[in-house]
């Protein structure tokens, strides 16, 4: 199991309940999310998800490969509101850990897609996911620091764009 890669299915389950009036799909999605956020979190506050982390449902073990780093890729948009509705404390800890471990340079907004606190893979698809998380937390709490952090990451790419094309290197 991998919550990050299962998010589109879980969003669909919630939408199916809304469309059909049958709450069982949304209840299932909330139960899945709830169990994951209660049990599959590492010592930094990160959810055990992403391309390198897995939960083996048959052996009841958190597993992974290549060091099992935490990741978020915006190609799988995180439905933060859905997760927040199930466990807002876990979501806040996740977003705080993103700031601490993924944003490598707190002055420029450089990130590493791997949550190890080191310079590395500064991918726009990861930065987009982090900026989205920060903007979400600002929306939920009104704490301006999260809006400033979202803008810092956006400005990192804005400042590095090609002025003729507005494209940036990834």
Description:
The chain has helices at residues 3-20, 24-39, 80-86, 88-102, 124-141, 144-159, and strands at 53-56, 61-64. With 170 residues, the chain is mainly α. The chain has a two-stranded antiparallel ribbon. It is globular and about 50 Å long. The protein starts with a helix and ends in an 11-residue tail after the last helix. The mean pLDDT is 95.
- Residue fraction in strands: under 5%
Measure the end-to-end span: 29 Å
Order of helices and strands: HHEEHHHH
Strand order within the widest sheet?
Answer: 1-2
Rg calculated over all Cα atoms = 17 Å
Bin the helical content: 40-55%
Compact description:
With 170 residues, this protein is mainly alpha-helical. The protein has 6 helices and 2 strands; from the N terminus they run H-H-E-E-H-H-H-H.
Write the layout of secondary structure elements.
Elements: H1 3-20, H2 24-39, E1 53-56, E2 61-64, H3 80-86, H4 88-102, H5 124-141, H6 144-159
Antiparallel strand pairs: 1-2
Helix pairs in contact: 1-2, 3-4, 4-5, 5-6
List keywords for this structure.
mainly alpha; 6 helices; 2 strands; 53% helix
